[in-house]
Amino acid sequence: QVQLVESGGGLVQAGGSLRLSCAVSARTSRVYNMGWFRQAPGKEREFVAGITWSEGSTYYANSVKGRYTISRDNAKNTVYLQMNSLKPEDTAVYSCASSSLPARLPSSYDYWGQGTQVTVSS
Fold first, then answer.
1. How far apart are CA 17 and CA 37, in angstroms?
2. What is the pLDDT of residue 98?
3. What confidence score (pLDDT) does residue 49 get?
């Protein structure tokens, strides 16, 4: 069983930054890949960024590439999403998830956190 808890969301002005955290409660040897997703009201959940736990290989959605950075801290069992140059269209509930292989589809992920709200004002 893998439990994920996100934190760090909030309200920020356009152009600002936020860092989200995702605490992983399982042994990380059981977690191969972590991803961040977001879902805005009335829209489907979309992939944002992913990272393989052991190698630290990262991959991003085109919409956030160059602005967001995903990373992990093995000692703290935590995955981070640093979000810079935020735009109003980045407003969404952000969730972390774990999977057994790198993937961009939500259906490929097995465990999910509860999500944290990010609101970017113009």
1. 17
2. 95
3. 98
